[in-house]
Amino acid sequence: MIKIDSVSKRFGDFYAVNNVSLDIEKGEFLGLLGPNGAGKTTLIKMFIGLLKPTTGIIYIDNKKMSRNNMEVKKKIGIVPQHTNLDKELTVYENLIFAAKLFKIKDYKKRIEDIISFMELEGYKHKKSMNLSGGTQRRVMIAKALIHNPEIIFLDEPTVGIDLNGRRKIWDILKTMQTMGKTILLTTHYIEEADYLCNQVCLINEGKIFKKSTPKILKEELGIYTLEYFDKEMKTKYLYFKDKDSGENYVRGIENISYTIRKTTLEDVFYNFTNRKVE
C-alpha cells in the first residue's frame, strides 16, 4: 500500500530524514517510534505531500505521491499533531466543512454515522473551543475519516491527553484496524505503540534502524530485563531469555539493588540508541 524508496529530507546541511526505505502492507497498523526530533513528523509530512523529499520517491497504492496528486490524497486521512479544528464552529459544523471539501453528496448521513462511531452525540452542537483535549482529538479523527479513506496518518494523536481520553482513542483506532484500514501512527508513548501496532519501526536521527512486531523485538532482546545500580550508582540493564537466568546472574553479588521485570519496547529502543524515548 505504501512504499518509500531511498527517501531523504535535508534542511541546509541537516538531514531530518536520511535515506529511508520502507514497505507498508495493506491493513498494517504501523507505529513509528522515536524521540522528539527523530524525523517522525517530517516523514509524515512527506507521506501526505506537504513536504517534497530532497531525494527518493514515495508511492501510495502504486502511485507517486506529490502535493498536487489529488487522486492519491482522496485515499488518505490525516490527523495532525496540532489541532485543525475551527474553534468557533460546532462539532457538526466542522464535519460539514470537511465533508464539503471532499464533495460528499450525502454528507448529512455520513456525518451522523461518524458522530455515532466516534461517540460524539453529546458534543454535536458544542463549539470546538469548549471541548476537552481528548474530545477535540476524537473530532479531528472524525474529520480524517469523513471521506472513508483507505489510509490514515496520525501524528501524535494522544499527546497531552489524560488516560481516559487516550484509552477511548485507542479503542477507536483498534476498531479502524478491524475495518481493514492501513494506519501509520507516530508516537513517543511506548505503551501506545505496544498495545495498538502490529508492526513497529524504530527511528532515530532520521534513520529507521529496525522494523518488526513488538513481540519479536522484545524476544530478540530478551524477555526479561535486569535493572540494577553498579558501584558508581549508575543504572545498568542486562537482558535474559528467562527470569531464572537473571536471578542466577545477581546471585552471590553482595549489596546489589536490582529489579527483574518484563522487557518493554522502551528497553528495545534504549538498547539500540542508548537514549530513552522522551
Automatic annotation (TrEMBL):
Keyword flag Phosphoprotein: no
Keyword list, A-Z: ATP-binding, Nucleotide-binding, Transport
Domain of life: Bacteria
Pfam families: ABC_tran
Example of a GO MF term: ATP binding
Domain ABC transporter: 2-230
Cross-referenced InterPro entries: AAA+_ATPase, ABC_transporter-like_ATP-bd, ABC_transporter_ATP-binding
Recorded family membership: Belongs to the ABC transporter superfamily.
Name of this chain's protein: ABC transporter ATP-binding protein
